[in-house]
Specification:
alpha+beta; Nuclear Transport Factor 2, Chain: A; 6-stranded mixed beta sheet; globular
């Protein structure tokens, strides 16, 4: 697999994290194919589903917009490219901290684990077609991630 493909796949995930952490919703949305399979069942208990990317971004935006800050750190990217070069899978360690009230040290929730994500090659870049978070551990107050009413 060419190094430039490995880097381009990993950079899609880095832009995904940058988009959500900076609340840059156009950047975040731009990392997805038109349809995406999302699986956060380890964290939420909600079964995996395939949705329109626009609908997915619209659904998660209120949750993240109400948080004071988030910080997604992703490391150790391992990329597998399909033989035809049209799809890829990346596995990456992740630690994501979510802060509700920055003045309350108990108002934070951190998730550690790995992303196992699928991507499709677009004309000149890679797009997420599947996002799966495999949770290894959590710390703090999970109610920080309770969706707004």
């Amino acid at each position: 697999m060419p190094a430039e493909d490995r880097l381009a796949v990993a950079e899609t995930l880095y832009r995904y994290a940058l988009g959500v952490d900076n609340r840059d919703w156009p950047l975040y949305r731009a990392q997805f194919a038109d349809r995406v399979r999302v699986d956060f069942s380890d964290l939420t208990g909600i079964p995996a589903t395939e949705v329109a990317a626009d609908d997915y971004v619209a659904a998660v935006r209120p949750l993240f917009d109400r948080l004071h800050a988030t910080h997604h750190m992703m490391t150790n990217p391992l990329v597998d490219l399909a033989a035809d070069g049209a799809t890829a899978r990346i596995r990456m360690s992740v630690q994501a901290t979510h802060v509700g009230d920055p003045h309350d040290p108990t108002s934070a929730f951190t998730v550690g684990g790995r992303y196992e994500n699928d991507l499709v090659r677009a004309a000149d870049r890679w797009l997420l077609s599947g996002v799966h978070l495999a949770v290894s551990w959590t710390s703090g107050d999970p109610s920080v991630l309770t969706p707004p009413p």
